[in-house]
Write a structure and sequence with these properties.
The complex is a heterodimer of chains A (170) and B (204).
Chain A (H helix, E strand, L loop, with lengths): L1 H22 L3 E4 L2 E9 L7 E10 L5 E7 L3 E12 L2 E6 L4 E3 L3 E5 L4 E8 L8 E8 L3 E10 L21
Parallel strand pairs in A: 2-11
Antiparallel strand pairs in A: 1-2, 2-3, 3-8, 3-9, 4-7, 4-10, 5-6, 5-9, 10-11
Chain B lengths: L2 H24 L6 E3 L5 E4 L6 E4 L4 E3 L7 E7 L6 H16 L6 E7 L7 H7 L8 E4 L2 H10 L4 E5 L6 E6 L1 E5 L5 E6 L4 H13 L1
Parallel strand pairs in B: 5-6, 6-7
Antiparallel strand pairs in B: 1-2, 3-4, 3-7, 5-10, 8-9, 10-11
Classes of the chains: A mainly beta (170), B alpha+beta (204).
């Protein structure tokens, strides 16, 4: 019984801890870099691609460069950009990485640059977490956790999402 | 004319012709547009009949959606960024319309019929809005409807993975209850703007 009880306590604590990540805009700090609120969008069970969006702040006098990304949630994780060619939308890999300016920031947001997950190994369920590793030229590897928002969300914490999209999964 | 010059001229002609053919997909000519005295567009000469399959597996035509305003978006479920954004914006525009949204049917027509089966669309569309209907068809049926709406789409292969993405025009069309295209929303049109234009057409 005591063992069962301590297990139950552990489960509660784990759930509470992951809830804490969800409840607030979260950040990952490493050296001069801060990765602010990485988020993604819920997918359908058979949907095989997803985007991760985030903001990177650089408090150093030296620029850095995001050169790669890894995640065990997908066959391939890469840096992509949406290119608007008139009214035609083209999705292309980013060549040479994404610069994080000195004493500045870079935003990866819908309609622009993003982390692309191709060949998702499991459905992205609203309010779940996606662990990722961002690889920077200077700062090295930064472990982050992206929070999954509603499928049609326009920003972190469900900003602007239609209320019916709140159902976790169908 | 020297042979190399002739080839050069020919090449230029081919490039111009190709560019013109592409522009044809994207441009709506003044002659295509009919306006009411108020300046409100009453119809644009694009679109037309179609036969497709909805996400419940039912065969449908454009006639099934007459009597209601219709929003048509061409996209695909593998789409990682643009389509979720556009479908999310359609959902917000419907929210903005409040109870009037029952007079609007949102449709997503896939431009990736090889992967987007009715079953896949059935999983996908409710993530965005309970009224959203997904439509697919044979490769020929999709080409026909996309052509009639002057939608450009093309499969893009990447050697780094076995999956493919699509380049595609991202427009949302508004059709009136008679099935005329009366407005076209470009990527980036805010849900509020969409709702206000739909309202304008509802008032006539």
């Amino acid at each position: 019984m005591p063992l069962n009880r301590s297990l139950a306590v552990m489960v509660i604590l784990t759930v509470a801890a992951s809830g804490a990540v969800l409840a607030q805009a979260h950040e990952h700090k490493q050296g001069p870099l801060t990765v602010v609120h990485p988020w993604s969008r819920a997918t359908a069970p058979s949907q095989k691609a997803g985007g991760v969006f985030l903001r990177i702040r650089n408090d150093s006098n030296q620029p850095d460069r995001l050169i790669g990304v890894e995640s065990d949630r997908a066959d391939v994780a890469s840096l992509h950009a949406l290119i608007r060619d008139g009214d035609v939308m083209r999705m292309r890999p980013v060549q040479g990485g994404i610069e994080v300016p000195a004493n500045g920031e870079v935003v990866l947001a819908p309609g622009g640059k993003h982390v692309m997950l191709i060949g998702l190994r499991a459905q992205l369920i609203k309010e779940s977490n996606i662990p990722l590793t961002l690889i920077f030229e200077r700062a090295g590897r930064v472990e982050i956790v992206a929070v999954v928002e509603a499928a049609g969300s326009r920003g972190p914490s469900g900003a602007g999402a239609h209320r019916a999209a709140d159902t976790k999964s169908r | 004319m020297k042979k190399s010059t002739r080839i050069g001229v020919l090449l230029v002609i081919v490039i111009i012709a190709a560019a013109a053919a592409l522009a044809e997909w994207l441009v709506i000519r003044d002659g295509d547009v009919t306006k009411a005295p108020s300046g409100l567009i009453t119809s644009v000469e694009i679109g037309g009949p179609f036969t497709l399959t909805d996400h419940t597996g039912r065969q449908v035509t454009e006639r099934d959606y007459l009597g209601n305003f219709t929003l048509i978006f061409f996209g695909y479920t593998f789409c990682p960024d643009v389509c979720p954004t556009e479908l999310g914006d359609i959902a917000l525009a419907l929210d903005e319309l409040g109870t009037d949204s029952v007079a609007v049917t949102p449709l997503m027509i896939t431009i990736d019929p090889e992967r987007d089966t009715p079953a896949k669309l059935a999983e996908y569309v409710p993530l965005f809005h309970e009224q959203l209907i997904g439509l697919t068809g044979t490769v020929e049926q999709i080409k026909e409807v996309a052509d009639s709406y002057r939608i450009f789409y093309r499969r893009v292969e990447d050697p780094n993975y076995t999956y493919y993405l699509m380049d595609h025009t991202s427009f949302i069309y508004l059709l009136d209850p008679e099935g005329n295209v009366v407005s076209l929303f470009r990527y980036g049109t805010s849900p509020e703007e969409m709702a206000s234009i739909i309202r304008k057409h509802m008032r006539g």
